[in-house]
């Protein structure tokens, strides 16, 4: 009953690599419809946490529950993706030689199989979904351009759009602002806030200006566990967080 409104629940998660404890009792919850930001110095365990949620890494101990009762530690990556957990890695991986709109089409559920079926790809349902996604990521004006010709920022937004095309219940986004200009970074924050209106999102990010723009609950990881959680102001005023960041 405690978990009714909890989409993602991690408790006491432990992961070791050859004796090195990358996660040491990590506990974290994300409410349905919530967006949160995960910060922390290099090696804090942020990537390992994402790997555990997506089934890439199996924890040695602890609970990882989705929608209150689905035990993610027992599922493989494909099953977890099928549940509606989408992950965006740091580097954009769009189909460079396809147009922007065809990238979205290819990402649609089952799109790969039915792409050959031109009848389906021109159907009203497919068109409507593509239009909706292009509007959300604000790339409608470049829809017929090849993805390879987009700016770095636009490629990142397109890849987020490809995830949205699959109607995810949870989006995991890894350092979306990395390598972006200040203007693109600001636009990315606006985009994620728009997406968060009807999606649950976990954002891992180093750029504090960007995290401030997101204006969401921030959790700072250190040595594989939560060091502090709260607003960005609360977390950045936390003595232990200051020590961890200045002590490097
Ligand atoms: P972050 O993403 O916060 O920088 P990571 O989750 O990548 O941190 O890494 C946490 C720690 O676990 C690091 O010290 C890293 O070297 C170690 N680690 C991560 N993955 C592996 C692996 N596959 N094998 C060995 N050590 C790993």
**Quaternary organisation:** single chain
**Helix/sheet category:** alpha/beta
Beta content comes to: 25-35%
Mean pLDDT: 92
> In percent, how helical is the residue content?
25-40%
Uncertain ranges: none
Number of helices: 11
Largest sheet: 6 strands, mixed
Specify Rg, calculated over alpha carbons.
19 Å
What strand line-up does the widest sheet have?
6-7-8-3-9-10
| First-residue to last-residue Cα separation | 42 Å
Shape: globular
Q: What's the helix-strand series?
A: EEEHEEHEHHHHHEHEHEEHH
Count of strand segments = 10
Hetero ligands: adenosine-5'-diphosphate
Could you characterize what this model shows?
GO terms for molecular function: ATP binding. InterPro entries: AAA+_ATPase, ABC_AA/LPS_Transport, ABC_transporter-like_ATP-bd, ABC_transptr_urea_ATP-bd_UrtD, BCA_ABC_TP_C, P-loop_NTPase. Pfam families: ABC_tran, BCA_ABC_TP_C. Keywords: ATP-binding, Nucleotide-binding, Transport. The chain is an alpha/beta fold and 248 residues long. 37% of the residues lie in helices and 25% in strands. The strands form 2 sheets. The protein has a 6-stranded mixed β-sheet with strand order 6-7-8-3-9-10, sandwiched between helices. Helix 3 runs parallel beside helix 7 (152-164). The protein is globular.
Keywords:
binds adenosine-5'-diphosphate; 4-stranded antiparallel sheet; alpha/beta; 248 residues; single chain; 6-stranded mixed sheet
Outline the fold blueprint.
Layout (H helix, E strand, L loop, with lengths): L5 E12 L2 E12 L3 E5 L6 H8 L7 E6 L3 E2 L5 H6 L2 E4 L11 H8 L3 H4 L3 H4 L2 H13 L15 H13 L5 E5 L7 H15 L3 E5 L3 H7 L2 E6 L2 E6 L1 H6 L1 H8 L2
Parallel strand pairs: 3-8, 3-9, 6-7, 7-8
Antiparallel strand pairs: 1-2, 1-4, 4-5, 9-10
The structure holds adenosine-5'-diphosphate.
The site of adenosine-5'-diphosphate (ADP) has 11 residues, from strand 2 and helix 1.
Protein name: Urea transport system ATP-binding protein
GO molecular function: ATP binding
Organism: Labrys wisconsinensis
